[in-house]
Design a protein that fits this description.
The protein is of the alpha+beta class and 769 residues long. The chain has four domains: 103 residues, no CATH class; 182 residues, Aminoglycoside 3'-phosphotransferase, Chain: A, domain 2, CATH 3.90.1200; 186 residues, Beta Polymerase, domain 2, CATH 3.30.460; 209 residues, Rossmann fold (3-Layer(aba) Sandwich), CATH 3.40.50.300. It is 42% helix and 20% strand. A nine-stranded antiparallel β-sheet has the order 1-4-2-3-5-6-7-10-9. It starts with a helix and ends with a helix. Keywords: Kinase, Transferase. One of its GO terms (molecular function) is kinase activity. This is Thymidylate kinase. It comes from Chryseobacterium joostei.
């Protein structure tokens, strides 16, 4: 503050000095407690609102409230106040005893304060770098003189640190949206000078690259740096780029709309060296991040919408110049931030959005899943967390069937889930909340799966096994910036986990555990439980609470039922085996495979032949060989098996579905409708189809079929005609059922290529969940 007044012709003191005059300043602080705006406490007008972007309803309400307080003369009672003493120099640039206000500006090497007094703004440089920017603005204002499209302030250098600017805001309105007026102004500003150059000859860009190579700031998220390097490495140095004159900080808070004309302030960053459309991108992106708090997904959507209205660049050109905007703007500000001792929260917002925006240019070499993993760890970069059993390679190299276990507080876990839900790469986020963790399943736009376990407490059933606060305190950071649970804590967790589950420690971890866990520690489950129960977090009321949460968690996620139908030879067994493995490894859900029905009741022949003989005969006999012609016998057989379905479905639901398992049926009730002969039943289809109405409907039903020739090459159990007839019956049945109930999936799939079939099935599950 003293330096500000020194450059305006005053000296300030906190204590009275000979010849000094007492004065009181009122002020409004930043969230961190530093002064944001201050003014003469005797001021009768809230001139500090000249610096405030009152474009939103919330901002307007604040402005109206402030103005109301000043009208009632309550400002001295409302705002914080500090008494200081001043001595005036020979030629002060403003009257300190009159109405005035000062905005302290953004902290950093380019810091400048803004004074408003006697209908003029004064930009006051606080550093040598800021002084250069003030002089650059003075020269830029000479270049960008008024025309029919926009207005600029008249300017005068008061001294080498202070630039005087006329007030062109009167009668104007700030708008937090890029209008046609803004768009036409951007084009008009660019007309001052345009040029085309090779990237190799673009000095401004090459200087930024050089500065970036020497950047060494641990505060910058590692994956943002890696993404920048990847995008830069993919640029053709012989590529032509259109450059044009730009304002450089063309934002809603630097513009006023006045009678269909734009009044524009803050020309200090104006340059002839920036890529075409720089101001266009800057307005939308800065406004989206800092004012509207939008996700990159919504910002990019707005860019495309505004482009269609204002510029109509084709997609290729739009993405090309968006890329060069992001590179030049990000590289430029990373250099500034590296010189800034303390970072304000807005810097983290900007970095988070920039790193996500760069994904657009990396999809050729990286999958969405890989880029999302990078985004996750950049999002967590300044958050207390630690990964458990995570590899030491680049984070995105995580194996396709692997998940990420993260020790993190519930509060920060919720923030991460919000971030994931808004991420432009994500189609769907499914969250399962348990007492000790959030289980998060993420589906990308291209149906790739990423699973996260966000663990707030390390527990085994009803016992807490380790203190997560201590685990976080001991965390380590690898060279990719990923925080990991320490080796000692990881070994301790593995030791407890496998012994409590009475499982052998995998060979992969045996040596690791023996190196870090005291060999004297017991491996006996009962003794481990006894020791854990002596811990404070497992005693008394906490123990009761843990038991309650364990019981509640056991039923926190329901499973669902899938059925696979088709003639023998259609490939059901192979598909079921593959789907089962994919669900367990990639979808991370336990699977139970059942054949044909719940099997609460045995097959009928068990009652006459005995269990072993009946099952052996069933295995050895060919399908559809029964010769039952009796309606009574058929009705009895159907009633018997239908009873199994009616009663068994509840057992299956309670035993598996309610406890989170995915049940796969190899054949299902549909055989009684489309192929009753297989079960040696001869009944009208109206009976078997009508009875289906009373069953719990499986969530997913897949009918697999193939050309008769292909099926006969696999199995010769059915005739060509039978295959054709049954395929028609199943297809018509599934089509009919699909129309009746849109909430249940009935899908017919031609099973010619296994990978295609599996993709169709998994994508159907993913899209529905």
């Amino acid at each position: 503050m003293k330096n500000i007044f020194k450059n305006t012709g005053y000296r300030l003191f906190t204590k009275q000095q000979p010849g000094s005059v007492k004065i009181a300043f009122s002020y409004i602080p930043n969230p961190d407690g530093s002064v944001r705006w201050f003014w003469n406490s005797n001021s009768k007008k809230p001139l500090f609102l000249k610096f405030y972007n009152a474009a939103t309803l919330k901002a307007k309400l604040f402005s109206w409230l402030v103005e109301f307080l000043f009208v009632l003369r309550l400002q001295k009672l409302t705002f914080k106040k500090e008494t200081v003493y001043y001595i005036a120099g020979e030629k002060p640039i403003f009257d300190i005893e009159s109405d005035w206000a000062i905005f302290t500006g953004t902290v950093g090497p380019n810091n400048k304060c803004l004074l408003f007094s006697e209908e003029c703004f004064y930009k006051i440089a606080s550093t040598e770098q800021a002084k250069q920017l003030v002089h650059n603005e003075f020269q830029s204002l000479k270049i960008s003189k008024n025309n029919a499209k926009y207005i600029t302030p008249s300017s005068k250098m008061v001294n080498e640190y202070v630039l005087q600017l006329s007030d062109i805001s009167a009668g104007g309105e700030r708008v937090n949206e890029l209008t046609l007026i803004h768009a036409k102004t951007i084009l008009d500003i660019a007309k001052k000078k345009t040029q085309s150059t090779k990237v190799a000859n673009w000095r401004y860009f090459q200087d930024l690259k050089t500065d970036f190579e020497s950047l060494n700031d641990e505060r910058v998220p590692k994956n943002l740096l890696r993404k920048l390097k990847l995008v830069l490495s993919g640029i053709n140095e012989n590529e032509k780029v259109d450059l044009s004159f730009s304002h450089g900080d063309f934002t809603s808070w630097n513009c006023y709309i006045k009678d269909h004309t734009l009044a524009i302030y803050d020309w200090e960053l104006a340059s002839f060296e920036r890529p075409k459309a720089f101001d266009f991108f800057h307005f939308i992106i800065q406004n989206g991040i800092l004012i509207q708090k939008k996700s990159w997904k919504n910002i990019f959507k707005e860019i495309k919408e505004k482009n269609a209205i204002a510029f109509q660049y084709d997609d290729k050109e739009l993405e090309k110049y968006l890329k060069f905007y992001l590179l030049t703007n990000t590289l430029s500000y990373l250099k500034i931030y590296a010189e800034q001792e303390k970072w304000h929260v807005q810097i983290h917002w900007l970095l988070q959005t920039w790193t996500e925006a760069l994904n657009i240019f990396l999809t050729e070499n990286n999958t969405e899943r890989e880029l999302l993993i990078m985004d996750i760890f950049d999002q967590l970069y300044h958050t207390p967390y630690a990964t458990l059993k995570f590899h030491n390679e680049a984070p995105e190299n995580l194996k396709l069937n692997s998940d990420i276990d993260i020790i993190i507080s519930s509060r920060n876990a919720k923030k991460l889930i919000v971030f994931l839900s808004a991420n432009s790469l994500v189609q769907n986020v499914t969250t399962l909340k348990k007492s000790f963790m959030y289980s998060v399943r993420i589906i990308t736009k291209h149906h790739e799966i990423l699973n996260l376990d966000l663990i707030s407490q390390l527990k085994w059933k009803y016992l807490k096994i380790m203190n997560t606060n201590e685990v976080l305190e001991n965390k380590i950071k690898n060279r990719f910036g990923v925080h990991q649970v320490s080796e000692k804590d990881t070994a301790r967790f593995i030791h407890l986990f496998y012994h409590l589950n009475e499982s052998e420690i995998p060979d992969l971890y045996k040596n690791f555990v023996s190196e870090h866990v005291d060999s004297k520690k017991t491996n006996d489950k009962k003794t481990i439980i006894k020791v854990l129960k002596t811990k404070d977090y497992n005693k008394g009321f906490r123990f009761i609470k843990n038991v309650y949460h364990y019981l509640k968690d056991s039923f926190s996620e329901k499973g669902f039922i899938m059925t696979f139908s088709g003639v023998d030879g259609a490939g059901k067994s192979t598909v079921i085996s593959e789907v089962s493995e994919l669900i367990e490894k990639r979808y991370r859900r336990p699977v139970k495979v059942l054949r044909h029905r719940p099997s609460l009741l045995p097959i009928l022949s068990v009652w006459t032949k005995g269990k072993e003989k009946a099952h052996q005969d069933a295995v050895n006999s060919l399908p559809r060989q029964g010769n039952n012609k009796s309606s009574v016998s058929s009705l009895f057989r159907f009633g018997y098996y239908y009873t199994d379905y009616i009663l068994g479905q509840f057992i299956i639901y309670l035993k598996y579905v309610l406890r989170g398992k995915i049940v796969l049926y190899d054949r299902y009730y549909f055989d009684f409708i489309a192929d009753a002969k297989r079960s040696n039943i001869q009944l009208p289809k109206l009976v078997t189809e009508g009875a289906y109405h009373f069953l719990i409907k499986p969530k997913f039903n897949f009918f697999l079929y193939a050309a008769p020739e292909k099926i006969l090459s696999r199995k010769k159990e059915l005739s060509y005609k039978s295959i054709c007839d049954l395929t028609t019956e199943y297809s018509q049945l599934f089509s009919k059922l699909e129309k009746k109930d849109q909430n249940v999936k009935y899908l017919s799939i031609e099973n010619n290529d296994l990978d295609t079939t599996l993709d169709t099935i998994m994508n159907t599950i993913i899209a529905a969940k």
